[in-house]
Write a structure and sequence with these properties.
The chain is an alpha/beta fold. It has 6 helices and 5 strands. The chain has helices at residues 25-37, 48-57, 74-83, 100-110, 122-156, 159-169; strands at residues 17-21, 41-45, 62-66, 91-96, 114-117.
Length: 171
Amino acid sequence: TAIKPHRGRGPDDSAPHILVVDDDSRIRDLLARYLQDHGFRVSTAVDAASARATMRGLSFDLLILDVMMPQESGIEVCEALRADPAHARLQIVMLTAIGAQMNEMTSPLYGVDAYLDKPFQFAELEKKITVSMENTHLLNMFSLSESLVYYVDAIEGNAAVLAKLRSIGGQ
């Protein structure tokens, strides 16, 4: 499964938007270039504070977040995002140098959707992004179906609205 939403073109406004947060400029810049070359819109942040500032003004489909950063760890950022309803469904891929066994045990505790050990291969990053984007689609579909059920229940509970809809529909 390829992650290229717009093969052969640069990113556009409909491309998924990814925020890359890493205090190591080499990793941050490499990820940004790679993702942009694969058609994603990419924003970057050097630490938790700049990530929060960036997130206030923009909407993201995925967050790639380093664990070990100065001042505030990626784990703390992840916990705060999961506590905020506005970001509770944001997919988060954590970049770590902690080790696979520790990541498998701790990632679910902090609300991380996937983790990637440093150093990583781009093929593994592509898999994580693909799964995360599929999860985002499923969460959005679930949210839509919840909304539809709510509105159907509301309409069925209101005889006047139901009668009007039936008259419009020719029933």
